[in-house]
Specification:
The complex is a heterodimer of chains A (273) and B (250).
Chain A: H1 7-24, H2 28-56, E1 61-62, E2 65-66, H3 70-88, H4 90-101, H5 104-109, H6 114-143, H7 148-178, H8 184-195, H9 212-215, H10 218-231, H11 236-268
Antiparallel strand pairs in A: 1-2
Chain B: E1 2-13, H1 20-24, E2 29-41, E3 46-50, H2 57-64, E4 72-77, E5 80-81, E6 89-93, H3 104-114, H4 120-131, H5 146-158, E7 164-168, H6 176-189, E8 192-196, H7 200-206, E9 209-214, E10 217-222, H8 224-229, H9 239-246
Parallel strand pairs in B: 3-8, 3-9, 6-7, 7-8
Antiparallel strand pairs in B: 1-2, 1-4, 4-5, 9-10
The chains are: A mainly alpha (273), B alpha/beta (250).
């Protein structure tokens, strides 16, 4: 524990985060504007679908969603989806850029643990995403006010989900460095993973035979915890079980990602720069 | 200081050929980048590696800094394996390894922190004085000229004050004035240096010993005088004559 929290290590982690932030904010208007539009892109599309559904049919509800709560629910989904999408492709995009810029050698030769790079990058992602997240959570509060404790738990769940997703992203990063030919696998995983995370719809929309895929998906549990903080449709026990699962995802996957990264880069080497 | 023993590096690559057949059944091509290379570099020595394009110079540098794993053989730096000696190495790979989207100062500061330096700003001041880059330090690297970039790359490699420097073509593309400036600075360092170059006068002016690589093999090694003496057919041959004679043919 003392080693993990040593001042030197924290300084390295902060230096990595600072570097990522400096690169992200080199063109600040572009960066902020593009991050701000992400959560509402699909929000608008699904909003139109739900509005048409509730106005054209006599139905008042769709699963646990209703005419009254679908807008804040979609907004919450938008915040989680855009954060998930950003974290999922984070290391793939940054490593491909670093290969193109020919700076990847710094990362590969520096006597720094890969886990520190992961934590530094996670910190940078958290700060980068704090701009759209705080804007949209403020809007959410305006539309559908929740208690500060609920808001804190939503944010905590969001960041735990981000940490786990970044761990998985590091596995993609390994292929971005070693063999870009297999990156398509992660596009397929992304399609399935986001589909079964139910960001913009309830799990009732998933065919029953495939619904177990949402149950085993930690991102779905993170999304459900956030919704439960607002709509109170889950019991305390259900929330605790989901929270334990999300916590497990956030703690274990980064280590698996770092181990996988080391193994792939060591076995396959570095190619394409 | 640096001991390279029987180093071999073999790549397997799919090559540029594309067809429906190679899409489903890719053909791997075996490329021998280095073959049984052995050499020793003494502490404080400047050692030049010469060789035509594709001879294996950059591959050797990448193995020396731990970017590539050799297929066989070993590299010891002051008795340690490369992966345990990364702190001892400063690396210049042409004008790469600096972030264009950050300022020169931010680049150096980032490196200083990665190498756990306690006072990065003090070291930056020392290096900017030594390499005369203070005026440009707070500008984005994308605005730098090639000469300025190379100075920054050298500063970056020197940031953690490593005893060993690996310089891959440190003056490539520079005008003669800038190239001379960089060479003078390299000489002033007094570190153990392996440098690769295509400039014969650079190898001759800087290094005590020179090795010539050809198709992954070490074909000659010695002082400039010793290499020239190998070419008995010509009177007063230049290093270029020796280079051409040793690297022509299979």
């Amino acid at each position: 524990m003392i080693h993990f929290l040593s001042i030197n290590r924290l300084r390295i982690i902060w230096a990595i985060a600072k570097k990522d932030l400096k690169i992200a904010f080199r063109f600040p208007k572009n960066f902020i504007a593009s991050r701000l539009i992400e959560p509402i892109r699909l929000f608008i599309v699904f909003g139109l679908v739900y509005q048409s559904f509730f106005s054209l049919t006599a139905s008042e509800t769709f699963g646990s969603w209703s005419k009254e709560n679908y807008i804040p629910t979609l907004l919450l989904g938008g915040i989680f989806y855009s954060s998930f999408a950003y974290a999922y492709s984070r290391f793939r995009l940054s490593f491909l850029s670093e290969k193109y810029w020919q700076t990847i050698q710094i990362f590969l030769t520096a006597p720094v643990s890969k886990a520190d790079f992961l934590v530094g990058s996670a910190l940078a992602v958290a700060i980068e995403l704090s701009i759209p997240t705080s804007c949209y959570l403020a809007l959410f509060q305006f539309i559908y006010p929740v208690s500060p404790v609920s808001l804190f738990l939503i944010l905590m769940t969001l960041y735990l989900m981000l940490l786990g997703t970044l761990g998985f992203s590091l596995m993609q990063g390994a292929f971005a460095i070693s063999n870009q030919n297999y990156l398509f696998i992660f596009d397929y995983i992304y399609a399935g993973w986001s589909l079964f995370s139910c960001f913009y719809y309830t799990s009732a929309a998933i065919p029953e035979a495939l619904r177990f895929l949402t149950t085993i998906n930690p991102v779905y549990h993170a999304m459900e915890i956030a919704r439960a903080m607002v709509f109170h449709h889950l019991s305390c026990v259900q929330i605790l079980i989901s929270m334990a699962y999300v916590l497990f995802f956030a703690m274990v996957v980064p280590f698996l990602g770092a181990a996988f990264f080391r193994k792939v880069v060591r076995e396959l080497g570095v190619r394409g720069f | 200081m640096i001991s390279i023993r029987n180093l071999t590096k073999v790549y397997y690559d799919y090559g540029p050929k594309r067809s429906i057949r190679t899409f489903f059944f890719p053909e791997r091509e075996r490329i021998v980048a280095l073959e049984h290379v052995s050499l020793e570099v003494k502490a404080g020595e400047i050692y030049a590696l010469l060789g035509p394009n594709g001879a294996g110079k950059t591959t050797l540098i990448k193995i020396l800094c731990g970017l590539l794993k050799p297929s066989s053989g070993e590299v010891l730096i002051d008795g340690n394996h490369v992966f345990g000696a990364q702190r001892m190495i400063g690396l210049v790979l042409g004008d790469s390894m600096v972030y264009n989207l950050m300022t020169g100062r931010d680049n150096l500061d980032y490196l200083g922190h990665l190498y756990r330096m306690s006072d990065t700003q003090k070291r930056i001041r020392e290096l900017t004085g030594f390499l005369e880059i203070g005026e440009w330090l707070d500008r984005y690297v994308s605005e730098y000229s090639l000469g300025m970039r190379l100075k920054l790359c050298l500063a970056r490699a020197l940031m953690h004050d490593p005893p060993v420097l690996l310089l891959d073509e440190p003056t490539l593309g520079l005008d003669p004035r800038y190239a001379l400036y960089i060479r003078d600075k390299i000489k002033e360092l007094g570190k153990t240096i392996i440098l690769t170059t295509h400039y014969m006068e650079e190898a001759e002016a800087l290094s005590e010993r020179i090795a010539i690589l050809h198709r992954g093999r070490l074909v000659a090694e010695g002082t400039a005088r010793e290499l020239k003496d190998r070419l008995k057919s010509e009177r007063d041959p230049s290093l270029t004559d020796v280079f051409i004679a040793l690297t022509t043919g299979p």
